[in-house]
Amino acid sequence: MERQPVKNDVSSYIIQSQEEEIKRIALELHEGVGQTLYSLYTGMQFIQTAVEQKAMQEYVGDMAGLLEKTIHEVRLLAVELHPPTLTTLGLLPAMKSYLKLYTSTYGIEVDLESTGKEVPMQAKERITLFRVCQEALANIARYADSVKAVISFIWSTDQLSIIIKDNGRGFDIEEGWKQSTGLAAMRERMHLIGGEWHLSSNIGEGTVIELHLPII
Q1: Pairing mode, if any, of strands 148-155 and 109-115?
Q2: Distance between CA 110 and CA 113 in Å, rounded?
Q3: What distance in Å separates the CA atoms of residue 10 and residue 34, rounded to the nearest whole number?
Q4: DSSP annotation of 57
Q5: Last residue within a domain, chosen from 24, 49, 81
Q6: How close are the terminal C-alpha atoms of the chain, in Å?
Q7: pLDDT reported for residue 21
Q8: 104 shares a domain with 48
Q9: Mean model confidence pLDDT for the chain
Q10: Which of 38, 61, 81 delimits the end of a domain?
Q11: What is the C-alpha to C-alpha distance for residues 180 and 74, in angstroms, rounded to an integer?
Q12: pLDDT tens-digit series, residues 61-87
């Protein structure tokens, strides 16, 4: 009878440790690598104005452009790993920020709907819900063959429900469980914070994922 709580504690500890490491990496990417690249970028711009040969100016300009593109990619990756707004502003603003990145990356338009008033949650709950939504969106990009999706946040006094829908190709759920570890990871994450996770899908009609979390 005591094995299940022990297993849950271990799983929770592993996930929390992973999140702390992800947060550290995201901060290092933004504050460390990102700042170093920016210093190199400004240096390349200075060199471009100093050299006289036109061919060399063009070459240095191309290198500066490449550095600028890399800086942008590093910053986007840092936000994807751990959006700062998740800690400072909450789950809903973090999702809005992430969806802009998601659409620009994958070309999939996601409508975000919110009903009711957002309720403050613990950090563990916020990051779990964000990660599950992130995984669901990643699956849409990988497998759904859809150009549009909808995420609905439904807030009540005692529960938050999140519904993620796409109108893509859908899949056989039994086969999906065999081929994807992401589905089990989403369900496990929700279970560890006392929530529920439900999946429905019909081939040719799309997929629906529902998250339900009691709010105390």
Answers
A1: parallel
A2: 10
A3: 34
A4: H
A5: 81
A6: 26
A7: 66
A8: no
A9: 85
A10: 81
A11: 28
A12: 899 889 888 887 787 777 777 787 888
Report which of 103, 206, 116, 123 is spatially closest to residue 162, judged by C-alpha positions. 116
In this structure, the answer to whether residues 70 and 93 fall within a common structural domain is no
- Sign of dihedral through CA atoms 81, 107, 109, 188? negative
Counted residue by residue, the chain has a size of 216
Q: What is the pLDDT of residue 38?
A: 85
Residue 96 structure tokens: 């809005």
d(CA 126, CA 94): 10
Q: Which of 108, 213, 211, 91 is nearest to 166 (CA)?
A: 108
Q: Which of helix, strand or coil describes residue 55?
A: helix
Query: Measuring CA to CA, which residue among 173, 174, 197 is closest to residue 185?
Result: 197
SS3 content of the chain, % helix, strand, coil (to 5): 65, 20, 20
Residue tagged 């947060």 (tokens): 23
Number of H helices, E strands in the chain: 8, 5
